[in-house]
Design a protein that fits this description.
Blueprint: E1 5-8, E2 22-23, H1 38-45, E3 49-50, E4 53-54, H2 63-73, E5 79-83, H3 89-98, E6 104-109, E7 113-118, E8 124-127, E9 133-137, E10 141-143, H4 145-149, H5 161-164, E11 174-176, H6 180-188, E12 192-196, E13 210-214, H7 224-237, E14 243-249, E15 253-260, E16 265-271, H8 278-282
Helix pairs in contact: 2-3
Bound molecules: S-adenosylmethionine.
S-adenosylmethionine binds near residues 56, 61, 90 and 110.
Organism: Sorangium cellulosum (strain So ce56) (Polyangium cellulosum (strain So ce56))
Protein name: Methyltransferase
InterPro entries: SAM-dependent_MTases_sf (IPR029063)
Amino acid sequence: MRFPFRLNRSGWPARMLPRRVCFPDPRALLRPEEITSPEVFSERISVLLLGGTYKTTRPGRHRQSDALLVGALRQKSPVVLDVGASDGSTALDLITALGDAFEAYYVTDRALSLRVRADDRGRAFFYDADGACVLAATPRLLFYPAAAGSRRWPRWVLPGWRGAIPPFDPAYPEVSLVQPRLREIARRDARVRLRPHDIFQPWDGPAPTVVKAANILNRAYFSDDQIRRAARNFWRALAPDGLLLVIDNRDAEKASLFARTEGGFGHIDSIHGGTEIKELILSC
Ligand SMILES: C[S@@+](CC[C@H](N)C(=O)[O-])C[C@H]1O[C@@H](n2cnc3c(N)ncnc32)[C@H](O)[C@@H]1O
């Protein structure tokens, strides 16, 4: 069960609390001039929790999996559907690994932007497309309303937080959750598209040659039934000879590459023992 609070690093002197118990300040997303590198952007995005999933990501975490995929493509120019791509750091990496050799690259996630209300007490409230507050950030604390609602916490855990959240207003400014460089590339190159997409819904774009699902088909987030449902959606979406790349980054980068077959998926190759859901994908 997730605890609904974390400490915001900005409000605690480093000598008082070690960095590992304090988290980067997501309010910096409202002040782009403070974000000095793609890594810093990813750190701030990774603090967000949406639909039970942290948006954890960072550049460079799929190097071996991307190499496995590029090798299997044998210079074919693919249409890539990257699902649960978070801020797109790893999409940028795969775009680079593909060189210019791709037909289209869809960078998708359940949420690519949020609406934010900031107030003069230094607090920021982040709302998803349904108007639900997903994060309230103060200079010292990060509060996750969905985690708070997931069980009955004792009163001392939630001292008056719920009442403090302002009601949603669709006029609140929109903040992009996508890496600035990727947004810039998408503006210049019509082949790169940023699109909200939920893996539990059918894909309504062109049939991809590759579906990349990294750190999303995870048993800590979803039940086996949900994972099978998502995998079947990928199967329906994929071109007949399409590929599915599933990656888990925990202690090490583990990945499995599957080929779409007539009736399901066949295993092509794995690295570091492959994904923990390999059998689930083969059985769907
Ligand atoms: C742990 S991050 C992985 C990011 C990136 N793929 C990586 O490996 O670095 C999981 C992402 O899945 C997204 N996500 C969660 N549920 C989703 C859903 N039902 N459909 C699409 N994306 C979802 C989250 O918003 C989050 O950005």
